[in-house]
UniProtKB/TrEMBL annotation:
<dbReference type="InterPro" id="IPR022417">
    <property type="entry name" value="Porphobilin_deaminase_N"/>
</dbReference>
<dbReference type="InterPro" id="IPR022418">
    <property type="entry name" value="Porphobilinogen_deaminase_C"/>
</dbReference>
<comment type="function">
    <text>Tetrapolymerization of the monopyrrole PBG into the hydroxymethylbilane pre-uroporphyrinogen in several discrete steps.</text>
</comment>
<protein>
    <recommendedName>
        <fullName>Hydroxymethylbilane synthase</fullName>
        <ecNumber>2.5.1.61</ecNumber>
    </recommendedName>
</protein>
<feature type="domain" description="Porphobilinogen deaminase N-terminal">
    <location>
        <begin position="3"/>
        <end position="219"/>
    </location>
</feature>
<comment type="similarity">
    <text>Belongs to the HMBS family.</text>
</comment>
<feature type="domain" description="Porphobilinogen deaminase C-terminal">
    <location>
        <begin position="247"/>
        <end position="319"/>
    </location>
</feature>
<keyword id="KW-0627">Porphyrin biosynthesis</keyword>
<dbReference type="Pfam" id="PF03900">
    <property type="entry name" value="Porphobil_deamC"/>
</dbReference>
<dbReference type="Pfam" id="PF01379">
    <property type="entry name" value="Porphobil_deam"/>
</dbReference>
<keyword id="KW-0808">Transferase</keyword>
<dbReference type="InterPro" id="IPR036803">
    <property type="entry name" value="Porphobilinogen_deaminase_C_sf"/>
</dbReference>
<dbReference type="InterPro" id="IPR000860">
    <property type="entry name" value="HemC"/>
</dbReference>
<dbReference type="GO" id="GO:0004418">
    <property type="term" value="F:hydroxymethylbilane synthase activity"/>
</dbReference>
<dbReference type="InterPro" id="IPR022419">
    <property type="entry name" value="Porphobilin_deaminase_cofac_BS"/>
</dbReference>
Length: 332
């Protein structure tokens, strides 16, 4: 049996998929092959939010699973819509890596050191809002492209292919903000000038986590659910699942779902287990950075139900504090 693993063809997607495929093959003892799937997010140009948000990277992979063109699909979990996909299951959430966002700036500058009016690139309304809250004097520039393309917008970063200033293409920004996890996976952490701690910038729900999705009939059997499998693939998927990561992302995604937050809503969320408690902190920001509501809660209910209830509880707190009044939560 060869397990077919669906992936986008970007450098980051291929790298994280190959790493996960190698782990699956080692645990399951079966051969694997990567199946490249082209998504709308890889083809269309323009603002990510105008294309329908991060879900554009997921739909084609899900369709390929349902058409039996691949057996599993690997996503960045922050790209996964919170709504259930009929016929598919989130089979595994491998151990989470660094959740933080990072600043990649010219001359090794940190966020506090950037000069007034410095041009900082990001395609994320969440990042843009929190950047404006921290440094309202910055010019935030909406950018698209893969990781290398974005890094290429900042002059002098290690690994950049050119030093030519071309507006909109290369060396025309003072900094960009990216996810630490992605840079780590493609070995470009040497471009980071500052790791942005969560008190400055809360990450996207699921950031730093991968999602392994498969058809529900092939997913590991789980307590309380009638569907599921106990075959070799299901056992391998179960072995890759990290319970603490699953609890954390369940809480974060439940919060998003209760907020009815679209892919482009300026919402940050971070959950983690510490001892006998699962902690969750979240922020909803005005896109212009002038207002925000932020709070945190914890629970000793260390189950998926408990994590879900934690996310709902904190969402209710944020809504009661006016979250829906300061941000377009349905933005997509």
């Amino acid at each position: 049996m060869t397990v077919r693993i669906g992936t986008r063809a970007s450098k980051l997607a291929l790298t994280q998929t190959q790493q996960t495929a190698d782990q699956l093959a080692a645990v399951g003892g079966f051969p694997v092959e990567l199946v490249h799937i082209r998504t709308d997010g890889d083809v269309l140009t323009g603002s990510l939010s105008q294309m329908g948000g991060t879900g554009v990277f997921v739909a084609a992979l899900r369709d390929a699973l349902l058409r039996n063109e691949c057996d599993v699909a690997i996503h960045s979990l922050k790209d996964l819509p919170t709504g259930a996909a009929v016929g598919l299951s989130l089979a595994a959430t491998p151990r989470r890596v660094d959740v933080r966002d990072v600043l990649c700036a010219r001359d090794g500058l940190k966020l506090a050191d950037l000069p007034a009016g410095a041009r900082v690139g990001t395609g994320s309304p969440r990042r843009a809002a929190q950047l404006r809250a921290a440094r309202p004097d910055l010019e935030i520039v909406d950018i698209r492209g893969n990781v290398d393309t974005r890094l290429g917008r900042v002059p002098g970063l290690p690994g950049n292919a050119t030093t030519e200033v071309v507006p909109g293409k290369s060396c025309d920004l003072d900094a960009v903000v990216l996810a630490a996890a992605g840079l780590e996976r493609i070995s470009r952490l040497d471009t980071v000038s500052e790791f942005l701690e969560t008190d400055v910038m809360l990450p996207a729900a699921g950031q730093g986590s991968l999602a392994i999705e498969c058809r529900t009939a092939d997913a590991p059997a789980r307590p309380g659910f009638a569907e599921g499998s106990k075959d070799v693939l299901a056992q391998a998927l179960s072995a890759l699942d990290d319970p603490d990561t699953r609890l954390a992302v369940t809480a974060e995604r439940a919060l998003l779902a209760r907020l009815e937050a679209g892919c482009a809503a300026p919402v940050g969320a971070y959950a983690f287990r510490k001892g006998s408690l699962l902690h969750l902190e979240a922020v909803v920001c005005a896109v212009d950075g002038t207002a925000s509501v932020r709070d945190k809660r914890a629970t000793d209910g260390l189950t998926e139900v408990g994590a879900t209830l934690l996310g709902i509880e904190l969402a209710e707190v944020l809504l009661a504090a006016g979250a829906a009044d300061i941000a377009d939560l349905q933005a997509s």
